[in-house]
Design goal:
This protein starts with a helix and ends in a 6-residue tail after the last helix. It is 71% helix and 0% strand. It has 310 residues and is mostly helical. It is globular, with a radius of gyration of 23 Å. The protein has helices at 2-15, 18-24, 27-44, 46-49, 90-126, 128-142, 146-160, 166-197, 201-208, 213-221, 226-249, 261-269, 278-304. α3 (27-44) crosses α5, α3 (27-44) packs across α13 (278-304) and α5 crosses α12 (261-269). It is a multi-pass membrane protein.
């Protein structure tokens, strides 16, 4: 009985907050949220709403290959967005592929956030040698484009793994590669905020009463530096999804047995100039809609949390 009451109170506080007021007054944010919910909902409900199972080899029929979208004169209503070279329904492949793209994007962003926040807290609070070493590593990594770092990490990890494990661990390797390429953004932001917070009265009081460093960082400093982290994580989600699509397009991302939107675009690119444009255009449009909606939400959140713009 307590949980519904707490949820109702939390919902009431949210409706009375400045963030909700800012969200309602921003048509761009509302539209982006609707598109993002549509993409996420379609991905999560793919097993139930997809017209076909694109990974069921027994259900594929090569006679259905290269069918155009349903509104074309040669189209088939059973395949609303047409089929690819193997007779797979493009709409179903997009819904299932979006699941992989979102899984990689969310997991990589969560990993980068946790690692960056932890290292940023340590660097900002401890200072000295730890701060110098961690920030110089971050500075060096930031001199390279994130996609190059992800390619390097992915190649090194894949080369160090036994060949028979490549397919089973490919998804986790991509998540690790993208996450490890993005942590400096979070670390530098958290480190700067921690440098400001560590000399405030509440931190000094915590030291006086004998609290340990780890407890002060996690229970006192961390809650006060999470605002910018939330904005960076939202914006970084779109970048992580794009990074996964880029790796998959280059053939070093998720395995073909688990195709993401990037893999579908790469497959369709082989047929783009032969007239089967729908195989790559529709997955590309889905990727653009997903990333654009997330980026617009991130831009709105950044402005909404900026006190100078209120």
């Amino acid at each position: 009985m307590a949980l519904p009451g707490a949820a109702a109170a939390l919902l009431a506080r949210w409706r009375e907050s400045d963030l909700w007021w800012s969200f309602r007054r921003s048509p761009v944010a509302v539209g982006a949220a609707l598109v993002a919910l549509l993409c996420i909902g379609g991905a999560l409900l793919a097993p139930w709403i997809a017209p076909h199972d694109p990974f069921d080899l027994a259900g594929l029929d090569l006679s259905n290959a290269f069918k155009p979208p349903a509104w074309d004169a040669e189209g088939d209503p059973a395949f609303p967005l047409g089929t690819d070279g193997q007779g797979r329904d493009v709409l179903s492949a997009i819904l299932y592929g979006a699941r992989i793209s979102l899984l990689v994007g969310l997991s990589a962003t969560a990993f980068a956030t946790l690692l960056g926040v932890l290292l940023g807290l340590v660097a900002g609070y401890a200072g000295g040698t730890a701060d110098a070493v961690l920030m110089r590593i971050a500075d060096v990594q930031l001199t390279f484009p994130s996609i190059l770092v992800a390619l390097l990490v992915n190649g090194v990890v894949q080369a160090s793994l036994p060949r028979e494990l490549h397919g089973a661990l490919a998804l986790y390797v991509v998540i690790f590669a993208i996450g490890i390429s993005e942590w400096p953004k979070f670390a530098r932001t958290v480190r700067g905020s921690t440098l400001v917070e560590r000399n405030k009265e509440y931190v000094l009081a915590a030291r006086v009463i004998g609290l340990g460093r780890a407890r002060i960082m996690l229970t006192h400093v961390l809650p006060n530096v999470l605002g910018p982290v939330l904005v960076i994580a939202t914006l970084n989600l779109g970048l992580a999804i794009l990074a996964e699509a880029t790796l998959s397009f280059l053939g070093v991302g998720v395995p073909p047995t688990q195709p993401s939107l990037g893999t579908l675009i790469r497959i369709g690119n082989d047929f783009l100039f032969s007239g089967e444009w729908w195989i790559t255009i529709f997955p590309g449009a889905a990727l653009v809609a997903m990333v654009l909606s997330v980026n617009l939400l991130g831009d709105w959140l950044r402005d909404a949390l900026n006190p100078k713009l209120r």
